[in-house]
Amino acid sequence: MEQEYTSNLQVEMKNDCIPTGVYSSNFRAEAGPIREGAYRVKKSCTELKKMAFLSDIPSHCGISGNEIAGTLAKDGSKQCQRDKPATYKEAKNAIKNAQRNLWLTKHPHFNKVDLCHQLQRSHQVITFRLRTGHNRLNSHLHTKLGIGASDQCPCLSAAMTVENILLTCPNYRHLRSQTWPEAIIIQRKLYGSLRDLQDTPVSIEETGLSI
Q: What is the pTM of this model?
């Protein structure tokens, strides 16, 4: 396309254009050739002392029929293309996207802007272990890993779980009352405001427990 354009420049100035699809589903594949073509046009214009203008022309975005066609094309691109073997990179991206979509389906409450990421590293680790249950409390060690004589809390009132430590264990009632003068639900302690998330690991550290 750019060769035809530059050949026209040698004869007369024409109001030609090189269409690009910035919003098209294939734009990434087109970007390289478009960039190369634009560079050659610019070089030819410089050599011929001509001028080239770039103009943003509104696309068909927002037109319902084209939007539906675009959606169907994207859905079709996700299906197995039996007549065209995928490259390693295409297969890798397809598997990665499929696994990510599956994970998001299984974790509907996933939050990209989780305030936990604003905590210091050690407190992030504590919060993550409390949330997932993968920690060093007796319940997980005994039930999941077969470590220890039982899952009981040292207070002997219940299994040593996250809920027990953060809500009911009498051994840490005083520490909890200092951090949370009023009773609050465990979801707030683990998923609440930044202040809530800061208080929880500090309280755990004060118990001396290894999480």
A: 0.52
